[in-house]
Fold this sequence. Notes:
Strand order of the largest sheet: 3-5-4-1-2-6
Shape: globular
Radius of gyration: 15 Å
Structural class: alpha+beta
Bound molecules: zinc ion
Number of strands: 6
Low-confidence stretches: 121-142
Order of helices and strands: EEHEEEHE
Strand content: 25-35%
Amino acid sequence: MPFDPCAFHGEKFVGKPVTAYTRWSIAGVRHGFRQKSCVNCATERYAPVIQVSVPSGDESIAWPETCLGCGVKLDGDVFLTWLTFYRGQDRKDYVMPCCEPCTNSARETLRMGAQELPDRDPGNGAKVGGATPYAPDEPRRKPVLPW
Ligand SMILES: [Zn+2]
Ligand SMILES: [Zn+2]
């Protein structure tokens, strides 16, 4: 079976792809994308995104008070981008709670060479208000790449 070309470098590659499923909503309209890439591009492109994300699937996520990307105060104005990465059977889920400019630039990366998916994931990707405080002295996490 032929492999799809890498979403980032645009060519076919050998080895297990990394598949990213991403969801977010804009003005109440949900968008979902699937992006397949080689492990090299995935590492390079997703590391900065994962760096500003928190693992999801945990009911007790506390949204940060400041953007994890640029440090601007969010005042409850958090934009959420939901990310699921697969490599083979390994699955990792994250949510990126950031300010609008950081969110937009990450979403640009996540849309490169991606395929838009029909909306069938209700409940995710909403913009939330009323951010709950985050431990202010929580150390900046190093990205833990799922592959
Ligand atoms: Zn690539
Ligand atoms: Zn920011």
